[in-house]
Write a structure and sequence with these properties.
about 20% strand; 16 strands; 13 helices; about 30% helix; Rossmann fold; 7-stranded parallel beta sheet; alpha/beta; Alpha-Beta Plaits; about 400 residues
C-alpha cells in the first residue's frame, strides 16, 4: 500500500486516478511515500525517511527545497504543459489589454454613472483617450519556446502577427510543434530590436533573473509592450517603472503583482491567474498522479526537475532502484555487490542529471535481495535504495 499526503486541495480528477486498493491519500497521511502539492511552502518542512517523491501540480517549483530533496534522494516532479492552454489564453488577454487600454477605459466608464441620457455623448467625447493599436501586422517576440511559448507563438501567427521565437534549448519535439512561419531569433538582441510586443516564458534561475532590466530595455523598440506571465523576478521592477515613466515601455503586463508595481501608470497587474482554471487544475492533478504512480509502481521517472528521466516497462521480477551521487566507481561497486551475492541481472539502466544519478537493476523474481540491497546501501555516495 502506497501513502500519498496532500498539502493543498488537489483536484479529484487527479486523486481519482489512484487505485484505492493500492493507495491511501489525504492531508492527514503519516509517513507518506509521496506528497502532492500545489502552492504550499515546503522549505521549512521536515521530510520523513519514508518520502521518496514530491509531485507539484503545476510547473513552478519555487516552493520546494530542491537541493535538500536531491541530497535526501527525493524525486521532485512537476507537470509541464498541463496548464499551458490556460496561460496561453491569459497571455493573449494581456496582449490585448496592453494595446487597447481596456482596463483604464472600463474604470473611466464607471465614473459616468448617474449622468442619465448624457452618458452616450460623454462616451463618444471621451473614448479617444483610450485608443490603441491592433495586434495584426505587429511583431511579437516569444522568449522561451516550451509548452506555453509554442502555443503563444502559434496563436499569434494565426492572428496575423509576425513572430520571433528565441530558445537556445529548444527540444526536437518542441520544434516539430512550432509553426514554420515563426522566425528563428538567434539572440535576444534579435528579439529586442525587432519586436513591438515581447512575452517571456522561461524558468527563473541565475541566468534569467532580471533579464528585463535597464540594459536590455535600452535595446528594445520605443513603445514596446512587455508581457510577463512566467515569474515576477524575471523583470527588474524599478527599471520597468523608470522605462514606463520615460515612455520607452508603453505597457507592462504581469501576472505577479508587487507593492512597487501596483498603481503604476502603464502597469497591468493580474493576481496570478495564469493557471486558475478548473481545466488546468484537473490536468495538473492528473499528470502529477500519473507521474507518482509510474514512479512508485515501476520506478519510472518522467518530468522530474532534479533527477534524470528514466522510462521503464513493467517487470515481473524484482527491481532494485537506487539514487546516488554522479561520481565515478559507484556502478562498479554495485556490480561487485551483484557478483558477490551471485545474482543474475536481467536488465540494468543508469541515467544521470548533473550531480545525481539513478540506477535500476532487474533481477529474477525468486532472487533473495536483502544482502544485495544492504551492500548497495553501504556504498559511499549512495543516497537511497529500495525494491519494487
Amino acid at each position: 500500500m502506497f501513502h500519498i499526503q496532500t498539502l493543498n486541495k488537489i483536484s479529484p480528477a487527479g486523486l481519482d486516478c489512484f487505485d484505492k486498493k493500492l493507495y491511501t491519500y489525504g492531508d492527514a497521511v503519516e509517513n507518506p511515500d509521496a506528497i502532492m502539492v500545489r502552492s504550499a511552502a515546503m522549505h521549512e518542512m521536515e521530510f520523513p525517511s519514508s518520502l521518496k517523491a514530491i509531485a507539484r501540480a503545476g510547473a513552478g517549483v519555487n516552493n520546494i527545497p530542491l537541493d535538500r530533496c536531491s541530497q535526501q534522494g527525493i524525486v521532485v516532479f512537476n507537470t509541464p504543459g498541463a496548464n499551458a492552454n490556460a496561460v496561453k489564453e491569459l497571455v493573449f488577454a494581456g496582449l490585448l489589454l496592453s494595446s487597447r487600454k481596456i482596463v483604464n477605459a472600463i474604470e473611466w466608464a464607471k465614473t459616468l454613472k448617474g449622468n442619465g441620457a448624457e452618458v452616450g455623448k460623454m462616451v463618444e467625447k471621451g473614448k479617444s483617450a483610450f485608443a490603441g493599436p491592433e495586434i495584426a501586422g505587429k511583431t511579437l517576440g516569444v522568449i522561451g519556446l516550451g509548452a506555453i511559448g509554442i502555443l503563444v507563438a502559434n496563436l499569434a501567427e494565426s492572428l496575423g502577427m509576425q513572430v520571433y521565437g528565441y530558445d537556445p534549448y529548444l527540444s526536437v519535439d518542441a520544434a516539430w510543434n512550432l509553426s514554420r512561419s515563426v522566425k528563428h531569433a538567434k539572440t535576444l538582441k534579435d528579439v529586442y530590436a525587432n519586436c513591438d510586443y515581447i512575452t517571456v516564458h522561461v524558468p527563473l534561475n541565475n541566468e534569467t533573473r532580471e533579464m528585463i532590466c535597464e540594459e536590455s530595455i535600452a535595446t528594445m523598440k520605443d513603445g514596446v509592450r512587455i508581457m510577463n506571465f512566467a515569474r515576477g523576478e524575471l523583470a527588474a521592477s524599478a527599471d520597468v517603472i523608470k522605462a514606463l515613466d520615460a515612455g520607452k515601455i508603453a505597457a507592462y503586463v504581469t501576472d505577479f503583482p508587487s507593492d512597487d508595481l501596483i498603481g503604476v501608470d502603464g502597469v497591468i497587474a493580474i493576481p496570478h491567474l495564469g493557471a486558475s482554471t478548473p481545466e488546468s487544475e484537473d490536468n495538473c492533478a492528473r499528470m502529477a498522479a500519473q507521474e507518482l504512480m509510474e514512479f512508485l509502481e515501476n520506478g519510472s521517472i518522467r518530468n522530474s526537475v532534479n533527477m534524470p528521466a528514466v522510462e521503464l516497462e513493467a517487470y515481473a521480477g524484482k527491481r532494485i532502484c537506487f539514487i546516488h551521487q554522479n561520481i565515478p566507481n559507484i556502478l562498479a561497486q554495485a556490480s561487485a555487490q551483484v557478483s558477490k551475492c551471485n545474482v543474475n541481472i536481467d536488465n540494468m539502466v543508469n541515467k544521470s542529471k548533473k550531480d545525481y544519478a539513478y540506477t535500476v537493476i532487474d533481477i529474477p523474481k525468486d532472487t533473495p535481495v536483502d544482502a544485495l540491497v544492504a551492500g548497495i546501501r553501504d556504498i559511499e555516495g549512495v543516497i537511497r535504495v529500495w525494491t519494487l
